[in-house]
């Protein structure tokens, strides 16, 4: 995907593309699904707080007008802009059911028990929850007060974090999750006892946690960065934490990122897989190899920054980071 301003929407490869950073439980999810905003992970990630929120850096508040603008834009796109794919019919049927529930919730005089049942049905999927969250504060078209208040109550306390994160922005700050944010006190984290089992679950299963997108433990995860099996043999608890909080402080030469600029003006970044008089091969952060013909290479430069982004743990709680650290310590 390439979303540079000078590229057309078609050239961006956003439309109909399958998400590489998780579907967040959305049926037939796409990065952007033309005319189907509630299948679009781009919109979902803008609408939520917590892990997986976009923009990833410097954003802890949902931009309501911006969110509505993107929603309306996606909804206005011709569905033919993306090729037909598996799940299209099922997702269309799900959207029709949610539209019916939302219409019911907008009725005046709806019985309280029926209101609660309709909301609970919408909150059984990420797509329905996203549609409901958008409806709660859509300018000029908000839900009736009783329905909106109950939606926030049910969504904000939901057992599924993928749904709960969509409604956290409506809660008072005192009721929101206490996340680490941009400043992490290492000494504080090191004093917290961690649970290795909970850390394993966080690494292997929790939505929005990106460790497994680049690292592998056993047969789980992707081999973009170093394998983590046996990592605690070489690193103590503090060193492990430092490698998470400051990934560019110490980079193994085998995993140094390189930037390649082509004669056509394109820029690619990734790990250097191979370099010859015929081609340069890079592996990007998703694990995909990109081959650039040698005659197309304008320059190739080693980067001082790791492919692993900083602040990856900003949306975790202190206890979650301590748990993750305990899990890494157990890998001997």
Describe this structure in words.
The chain is α+β, with helices and mostly antiparallel strands and 332 residues long. It folds into three domains: 9-175, no CATH class; 186-249 and 310-329, Cytochrome Bc1 Complex, Chain D, domain 2, CATH 1.10.760; 257-302, Roll (SH3 type barrels), CATH 2.30.30. It is built from twelve helices and seven strands. A five-stranded antiparallel sheet has the order 6-5-4-3-7, with no helix packed on it. A two-stranded antiparallel sheet has the order 1-2. A hairpin with a 2-residue loop joins strand 1 and strand 2 (220-221). It is globular, with a radius of gyration of 22 Å.
Structure at a glance:
With 332 residues, the protein is α+β, with helices and mostly antiparallel strands. The chain has helices at 9-12, 41-47, 64-76, 88-105, 112-122, 126-136, 145-156, 161-167, 186-190, 196-204, 237-245, 318-329; strands spanning 216-217, 220-221, 257-262, 267-275, 279-283, 289-293, 297-302. Helix 5 (112-122) packs across helix 7 and helix 6 (126-136) packs across helix 7.
- What's the rounded overall pLDDT mean? 89
Number of helices: 12
Largest sheet, spatial ordering of strands: 6-5-4-3-7
Any idea what the shape is?
A: globular
Q: Which structural class do you get from the secondary structure elements? A: alpha+beta
Task: Indicate the radius of gyration in whole angstroms.
Answer: 22 Å
End-to-end span in angstroms? Answer: 38 Å
Fraction of helical residues: 25-40%
Order of helices and strands: HHHHHHHHHHEEHEEEEEH
- Tell me the total number of β-strands: 7
Measured by DSSP, the beta-strand proportion falls in 5-15%
Low-confidence stretches: none
The largest β sheet comes out as: 5 strands, antiparallel
Number of domains: 3
């Amino acid at each position: 995907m390439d979303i540079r301003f000078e590229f057309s929407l078609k050239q961006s490869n956003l439309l109909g593309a399958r998400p590489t950073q998780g579907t967040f439980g959305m049926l037939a999810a796409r990065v952007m699904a033309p005319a189907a905003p509630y299948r679009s992970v781009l919109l979902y990630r803008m609408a939520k707080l917590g892990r997986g929120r976009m923009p990833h850096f410097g954003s802890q508040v949902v931009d309501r007008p911006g969110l509505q603008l993107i929603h309306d834009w996606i909804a206005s796109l011709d569905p033919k802009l993306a090729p037909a794919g598996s799940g299209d019919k099922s997702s269309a049927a799900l959207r029709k059911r949610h539209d019916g529930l939302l219409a019911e919730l907008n009725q005046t005089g709806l019985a309280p028990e029926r209101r609660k049942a309709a909301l609970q049905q919408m909150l059984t999927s990420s797509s329905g929850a996203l549609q409901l969250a958008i409806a709660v504060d859509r300018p000029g078209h908000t839900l009736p007060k009783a329905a909106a208040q109950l939606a926030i109550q049910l969504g904000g306390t939901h057992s599924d974090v993928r749904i709960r994160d969509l409604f956290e922005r409506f809660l008072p700050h005192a009721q929101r999750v206490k996340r680490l944010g941009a400043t992490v006190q290492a000494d504080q984290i090191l004093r917290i006892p961690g649970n290795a089992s909970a850390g394993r679950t966080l690494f292997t299963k929790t939505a929005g946690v990106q460790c497994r997108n680049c690292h592998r433990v056993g047969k789980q995860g992707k081999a973009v960065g170093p394998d983590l099996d046996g990592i605690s043999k070489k690193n103590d608890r503090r060193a492990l934490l430092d490698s998470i909080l400051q990934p560019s402080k110490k980079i193994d030469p085998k995993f140094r990122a390189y930037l390649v600029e082509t004669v056509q003006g394109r820029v690619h970044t990734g790990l250097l897989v191979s370099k010859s008089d015929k081609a340069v091969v890079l592996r990007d952060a998703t694990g995909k190899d990109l081959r650039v013909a040698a005659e197309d290479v304008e320059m190739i430069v080693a980067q001082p920054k790791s492919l692993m982004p900083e602040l990856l743990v900003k949306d975790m709680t202190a206890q979650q980071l301590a748990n993750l650290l305990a899990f890494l310590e157990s890998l001997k």
